[in-house]
Amino acid sequence: MEKLIITVAPTGNVPTKELNPHSPLTVKEIIEDVKACQAAGASIAHLHVRGDDLKPTSDKAIFSDLLDGIYKEKIDIITQVSTGARGGENTVDYRGQMLDLKTEMASLSTGSSNFPTSINGNSPDLIEALASKMLNNGIKPEIEVFDVAMIENALKLVKKGILKDNLHFNLVMNVPGSIKGTPKNLMFLIDSLPKNSTFSISGIGWSQVNMAAISIMMGGHVRTGLEDVIKYDRDTLATNEMLVRRIVRLAKEFGREIATTDEARQILGL
Ligand code: MG
Question: Model-level pTM?
């Protein structure tokens, strides 16, 4: 089986210091966590940023500071910027402003869904515009799948030539309002993926370890981090590093080796 790519999603849109004081929110805090998680076994960093008010933003200048910091520190990790920040306009100019920066990957949701108190709104025009910008700038998309129709939508974009083959998916399991994180649902999504694609999973909340274990067994990859899960277990607030270390231990028990960053690049065709 291929080596396991571990992605760390340290910040996301939801975590606050109130929810978990370990949440890295400033550029400096995010860089420190990315560094520790890379040392622990992560080969991709899925990055969101916050504004001065610590609210989610797509601000290119802040993304630029973050990416520059990661490169300056020589952290050996694939950077993946999020185009999914909440709180801004749903236009390619806003949501895709950081795609002009030097980065190897970016996230791309290929459909809309509900979050608990808002819409995860991605119109067909917006999806095509973001995907086209990634294609033109040589950035590999990670297709964020919150429900099965989003896989079909991605295949339509392949037919149109906007997405290139050897797609990479992240199956986001158990977001309230989207597909529930059950083994049957995950198997159904995995069965629905096109041949020659690679996939990772994000098990949100209580589904975290179950989903990760199935993905490790099925030859998929794993995303973890405070974006996906705030608590390590019922009584313990997580840190990003603890979450990455748990996936490394789990993989070891299943006999799955961890990919280095260069091995991850090979697996993903970067
Ligand atoms: Mg994200």
Answer: 0.98
